[in-house]
Every structure is written in structure tokens, then in C-alpha cells.
């Protein structure tokens, strides 16, 4: 639409300022010619007349995406998700926004739904980040049937853009991972001289929401390795033998893409104690898992395996033998200094006044990293409400964050009630001494 047509619409709107369809038409026209500021103003005027107008909110999402204000766009698009749930344009932009905010799994889920609706549609940027393509393999492993199976599994291989610098606190965890994983990759010739292979396994345990997944992804980014995140649904299958095959294919995919960090979330669901199992199928899967960790049929050189669990006491003890998950790290809730670091990392590039991080960290005692994220999200949601009314970006203040913190209950306390009992009464090998130390309990 040219400038004359836009001028005609503006003149018509001057005569009928309450005409919402006309104003939406003008806003869309301005957006089409990339007059983003003017289009944003018109969409906001529509929302001042009808705050639930989906078309106006959708217009703002597109504007904020073009402005690279991805966090705000994501908040708005999730608000209208139910109304536009099966719209392909909506799903495509939603997947892109999730990817921009590093919500990889959710982005893949949305993109997969989009492809189910329209199999002919594809996006180069999403394909590159979310789908397994261009697998590098040698002639001995060249097997079209195997590649087909990997594609059916929809294994997502990432190359994370975050590193340890993006992880607030957790210095002891970073140090352990550095010794076990990073240094061997940085100095392979030294390890080879001593007859040791690069790679290995680390088990991370602790309360939910304390950054186990985040540190795993950052580990891959730290060494510029590929990253595969594996959940229960990626492996478990109702048919006997299929789960073991899925697990083997995932390990093979990681081996073909080494150096690679293979991350198993909620690993206790896959490796629960065999003595507690009534059916043989679960035991077969664990045996397969142990065989893959040992590299019985294939080399795991350059394969870095990280497992995360909230309930390590449910994990089969065989997983803790040397060569498997032989380094076990307690990922505790962030201390005051770490809480400050997390706040600074998560508020980076967000519109804020001068923030008193120490005050917020003090009232956030016992908060997990996820709890701190919830505090920031609540503060942002409140600021968005006032921003919609004022039509300008409202700065987040210390008081906003303190008020938001008062609405969040620490999610770690319930976990420590259970963990304390295991640390006191099922701790023969000293596995849970770190929990007792954290709780200041002497044996």
C-alpha cells in the first residue's frame, strides 16, 4: 500500500475515530510498509478501546519481533495462543520467538505441530536449529535405515550459544565439570599420553529448578560441542524392545556428532532401581543403558554424558560405578552471591532502573533459579500492564522485584524434607553428605 492510500485511511479514521476495523486496517497497512512506530501506536489505540482484541495483540507481536524485543513479543503471543492455536503464521512466529529465548524444546514442539498441519511448509532457520540434518558419518556407519530411524525419533541436535558466563553462581559445579569434561577436551594429547579417553559421565542431583539443565547446555557451549537433550518420552515405547532401540539410536546419534554432550533429564525415570521393578521390560532398558554407557559395542570417546535427577536415591546403584556416572555433584539452591548473579544475568538487557540486587537476593533466601525467574516474570508482567496503558516502556524497579518476590514461595523446601531423611538414614557410602553439609546437620 502506498503513502496516498495510507493518508486516505488516516483521513477516514479522523472522521470515525471509534472505528476499530478501520484502525486495524491502517495499522496493518503501516506495518506492511515497515512504519513500525506508527503501526505500534495504532495497535495500542485499538487495545485502549478493546483490551482483548486479538488482531491488535498479534500486530504488536510482529512489531516487537521486528524490533528484536523478543521477550515482550513472547509474553503477548502466549496470551493469544488459544485463539490462534492452529494458524500456521502464528505457529511459525511462535516457534521462532521460543528459539530466540532459548526455549529449544518448546520451540521444537510448536514447529512439529506446524509441520503436522502443513507438511509442505519449512523454515530454514528453524530446520537448522531444531531438526537432525546433514548427519556426518563414516562409510562403516553409512546405513540409510539407521538415518531414517533417527529422523523418526525427531532427535534435536543443538549447538548452544550460552557458556558458563551465562550461568549465575554454581562455581563448584563448574569446577567439577571443568576437571571431568572441559580439560580433557581442551588437552586430548595429555589424556592420550596416559591412556585415558576424553568423555565420561557426571550425575547432577538436587532440588528442581536449580539449573541442572541450564548448566548442561552451558557445558556444551563452553567447549563448542553439540548438545542433545533426552527426555523420557524420547525413549519409552509401549512395545517391548522399542525403548532399548530408541536409546541405542540416541547414543549412536551422539557418537556420530562427537564431541557431543548427551543430557538425560529425569534420569531416575529411565534408570530406576531394578530391585524395585516387577516387570522385566524396565530391567532390559536399564541393562541397555548400562551397556551404552560402557561403550560395549561402540566407542564413547568424545561423548560427554550428563544426567540430572531430583531423586538420586531411586537410581540403580550400577549407574554410579567407575566409567559410568562416576562423578556425582550436588546442585544446591543458589547462595546469596549466586542469587545476585542470577538476577543480573536474567535482567541483562531488560529495561531497569538501578537495582539493589543484594536486597532482592536477601529476601529470596532458599529460592531456586526457577523461583528467581518466576519473580522476574511476575515483575515484567506487571510492568507490561502499565506499559500498555502509558504506551511507553516502564522501567523495572527494586520495589517491583521485592513485591514480586513476596508472591513466590521457595520450591526447594519440600525437596529438602525428603532429602534430609535419605541423607540421615540411607547414607552408608556418604553419597548425600553434601546435603547434610548444606543443612548444617552433623552425623
Could you write a compact summary of the structure shown?
It is built from 21 helices and 6 strands.
Summarize the structure in words:
- The protein is an alpha/beta fold and 443 residues long.
- The chain has 3 domains: 1-68, Alpha Horseshoe (Serine Threonine Protein Phosphatase 5, Tetratricopeptide repeat), CATH 1.25.40; 139-330, Rossmann fold; 336-405, Helicase, Ruva Protein, domain 3.
- 55% of the residues lie in helices and 7% in strands.
- Strands 1-3-4-5-2-6 form a 6-stranded mixed sheet, sandwiched between helices.
- Residues 132-153 have low confidence and may be disordered.
- Write down the Rg: 25 Å
Give the overall average pLDDT: 83
Arrangement of strands in the largest sheet: 1-3-4-5-2-6
Overall number of structural domains = 3
CATH superfamily of the largest domain: P-loop containing nucleotide triphosphate hydrolases
Number of helices: 21
Order of helices and strands: HHHHHHHHHEHHEHEHHEHEEHHHHHH
The fraction of residues assigned to DSSP E strands is: 5-15%
**How would the global form be characterised?**
globular
Structural class: alpha/beta
**CATH topology call of the largest domain:** Rossmann fold
Per CATH, the class of the largest domain reads Alpha Beta
Portion of residues within helices: 40-55%
Q: Mind describing the biggest β-sheet? A: 6 strands, mixed
The CATH architecture name of the largest domain reads 3-Layer(aba) Sandwich
State the total count of DSSP E strands. Answer: 6
Q: List unreliable stretches of 5+ residues.
A: 132-153
* Cα separation of the termini: 76 Å
